[in-house]
């Protein structure tokens, strides 16, 4: 007897919650949780699948109760796994996939409930904050600004955004380029251009600030900012790098990963 997890769930055995993080970082670890309510029944088994292939099984009456099955990209930490959770180590790009938990009750009903979630392993940019190129140390009204922002190789590709004096640049002044794919792991390099004619409004107290932000979902945010002068004696541009790289960066203003 199979019961799907839904709003009008009526079977005795039920899944309370399946916790599968949508994004995790390459090289790290993760715990996948499968919380269930037996409602008086006895547990027969808990099984975990990745892309339809079983990699972990927990049967209370077996000795030992937990066992694993070899699968590329899946390294189970048996010592920290149980009926309610499975711990995965050494995540790599092959670890990306659809994970499904299946809980079954004992005889005679053998009720089964199942739910899944998708997990993506992210390879963060490998060259620090994004790089700004093509800028000049000084601009006059009427000059053209032509600069590019390049992010380090990652997977998936990062989102890039340009800011002019702290304000998000209009899409009409952006120049989008094809993503560059390279290496055995097909890592992606993102480049976003900025092109506009300088007007008086672009200078704030004689300076113009151009900032590029690179982000991935809510856990990666880095920026570079170039400050240039208006019609004054030439001065070398000031290059600043403001970095924010945390599990839950609340100050990310770029769009989340698609």
From TrEMBL:
Superkingdom of the source species: Eukaryota
UniProt biased composition (Polar residues): 247-258
Keyword DNA-binding: no
Region (Disordered), start-end ranges: 224-258
Coiled coil feature spans: none
GO-annotated biological processes: motor neuron axon guidance
Domain called Ig-like: residue spans: 26-114
PROSITE patterns documented for this protein: IG_LIKE
Biased composition (Basic and acidic residues): 224-245
UniProt keyword list: Disulfide bond
Stored PANTHER family: BEAT PROTEIN, BEATEN PATH IIIA, ISOFORM D-RELATED
Protein's recorded name: Beat-IIIc
């Amino acid at each position: 007897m199979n019961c799907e997890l839904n709003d009008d769930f009526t079977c005795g055995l039920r899944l309370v919650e399946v916790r599968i993080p949508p994004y995790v970082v390459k090289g790290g670890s993760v715990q996948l949780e499968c919380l269930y309510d037996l409602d008086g029944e006895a547990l027969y088994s808990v099984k975990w699948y990745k892309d339809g292939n079983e990699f972990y099984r927990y049967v209370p009456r077996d000795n030992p109760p937990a066992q694993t099955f070899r699968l590329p990209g899946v390294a189970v930490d048996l010592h920290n796994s149980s009926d309610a959770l499975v711990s995965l180590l050494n995540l790599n790009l092959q670890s990306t996939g659809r994970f499904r938990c299946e809980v079954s009750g004992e005889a005679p009903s053998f009720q089964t409930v199942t739910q899944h979630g998708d997990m993506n392993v992210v390879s963060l940019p490998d060259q620090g904050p994004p790089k700004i190129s093509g800028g000049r140390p000084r601009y006059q009204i009427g000059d053209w600004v032509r600069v590019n922002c390049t992010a380090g190789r990652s997977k998936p590709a990062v989102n890039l955004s340009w800011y002019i004096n702290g304000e998000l640049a209009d899409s009409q002044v952006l120049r989008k380029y094809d993503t560059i794919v390279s290496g055995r792991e097909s890592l992606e390099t993102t480049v976003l251009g900025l092109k506009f004619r300088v007007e008086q409004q672009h200078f704030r107290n004689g300076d113009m600030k151009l900032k590029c932000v690179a982000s991935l979902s809510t856990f990666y945010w880095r920026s570079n900012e170039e400050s240039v002068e208006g019609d004054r004696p030439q001065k070398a541009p000031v290059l600043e790098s403001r970095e924010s790289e945390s599990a839950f960066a609340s100050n990310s203003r770029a769009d989340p990963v698609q």
